[in-house]
Please model this.
Amino acid sequence: MAQRLDLDGDWQRVSPKYVWIVIVGSLIATVVSAAIIALIWYAGDWAWWGWLLVAAWAIGYGLQLIFAPRRARAIGYRMRDDDLLIRRGIAWLRFVAVPYGRMQLIDVTRGPISRALGLSDLRFVTASASSNVSIPGLPAEAADELRDRLIGLAETRRAGL
Amino acid sequence: MNPLADGQWHRMHPATPLLRGGAFFVAIVAIVFANLRERLVDWIAHVPDRAREGDPIDAIVEHGWVLWALLGVLVVVALIIVWYRVTWQMTEFRVTTDAVELRSGVLNRQNRQARLDRIQGVNVHRTLFARVFGAARLEIVVAGHDANLSLQYLGSAAAEELRREILGLAGSKRASAAGLHSASPVAGAGFETGAVPEEHGEAARLEGPQAPRPPQPLEAPVAASFAPGPQLDAILRARADELIFSPADLHPDFAPASVVKVHPGRLIGSLILSPFTIVLIAIVVWLVVEVARGNYILLVAVIPSVFGMFTGYSRRFGRLARYTISGSSDGVRVGYGLLSTSSETIPTGRIHAVEVVQPLLWRPFGWWAIRIARAGRARQRGQAENASTILPVGSLEDVGRVLPLLLPASDHTDLLALVHATARFRREARLFSQAPRAAAWLHPFSWRRVGYAYVGDTLALRAGLVYRTLDFVPLARVQSVAIKQGPVRRMLGLVDLAVHVVDVRIRPRLSVIGAPAGAELFEQLARSAVMLASRDSRS
Model:
């Protein structure tokens, strides 16, 4: 019965270095949540559910760190004839197809960690707020090149609203 | 040819300053009157002066400053009048073959352009105050936040004609952009008109001579007599018509009669049968219980807001009453409003999705509502919800009459069949696709109802048992397509497919569909969206 959704074809993957951004992000979240737990501990009134909380926390972040490389590898995009196809996620898979003519805006953003690793994030805006598509962790030059290419394609296939 | 659309710069209706500042003036007069009422009564009744301690008017009279005070008031009034007059003079608009342009502002000059091929719709709004004076605000809707261009105020008939003219120009613009031969008489013709008749601030001229008037419902006398009597009579009659008739009836040659009549009783019923009412009843019951237990302080605290909620009903009724809808060559015309009226024209090519819904409470009465998604939105306070509602409430027959207007490209009988399949679900009728049986784990009651169908180039999505919906998405206007699968759906062999359209308040979605069928539909939608969008922008 179980059927994994997949659209075959050769996917362009994001930079392997993107794994580090995911790991650093998870680590920061770990530290912050550990501080919150420590605070609760300090405030006292520690019952059995406290230990349960710690266990859930440890398992959650452990899994996140283990899956980080796989999650980074699961991000992919494919430039088809008329649209851009983007995939994300392992357990929660999401595929989005955005026609080139529907792209209103393409953003290139770089956070502090991405900058240190020489990576950029691409974000696409369509006229619909629910499209919500981005490709994180592209090498900076590749991102700029992809953006220029997509803008060129969007220009030639512009569709009215 | 409407003289206002001749490509030259024009000013607004000369009474614009009065209409824009109208509420302000009324408020000032009211304040002055309220403060001086006692004095006026005394003066009229010849009551000898009472002692008023520290009254500014007495102080002025005592010191002999009357002349100065009067002079001061006069200067302030004169300044206000001059300011409004200059603002009016500096505000001009023109309609060219490419765009509608508005330049305004005295100190900060502003020049705003709405390109004809980007127009999402044209609305005519009339507030109660403007209706008394036979004026209207023409709003040209374009995509984008606060990007609309608003011409306020124009003569009522002139606004109506200018709308038709602009929509006609926009339509022929789209047609000529597609390289088709334009048969429209408006395009390119008559743009060399030289002299523009100068407008003067004469109230009687606002209406009459500048535009050939359409026949009025009450057969206003058109006799060109210059005697003041009949002319005044004609103006008064036109005013009365404007107040009595709904916006669409006013100019019958511009729009055919409404295809749907919403009875006021039905509208009130639909407003009462809403989740809002349930919340209100819950609050009232809680209030009664608390008061019965002696908690009187709550009465003082909560009662005002409960009353506020009740006025919400009357406000919504006032907005949605006198609803009319009809098709015209320029698009769908929707009119509504009890005191302040509004009439919108939406070209059908600018409708991005259509949603037919039936909340659970409406089911015993068989009522439905229709909402649409569009890129631009009419800018009027408190009408955000209204702007997307195209049919506030109607029977199944009403839905059947309105849908073909909104989706003219689709086959009418097919549309009706799909609507009926949504309203009266029969297991054997297979108009919509069926989700596999495993979907029952996620939607135990409604899984049979989740499905899709095509009507020409439009995708139809049906869902819901409690809150029934039927979405229509013209594939040419799909922004993007997404498909999702979480762990649960993976176990059941299902996927979740969403079609993204411009307005996020309508989210066409197939929450369960078999995995292989879903992937296939995803590819198919992505392909046809691109193909139809390119064909759409060419034609």
The CA atoms of residues 179 and 538 of chain B lie 8 Å apart. DSSP finds 16 helices and 19 strands in chain B. Chain B touches chain A at residues 117-118, 120, 143, 350, 375, 438, 477-487, 490-493, 495, 498, 500-502, 504, 507, 515-516, 518-519, 522-523, 525-527, 529-531, 533-534, 536-537 (CB under 8 Å).
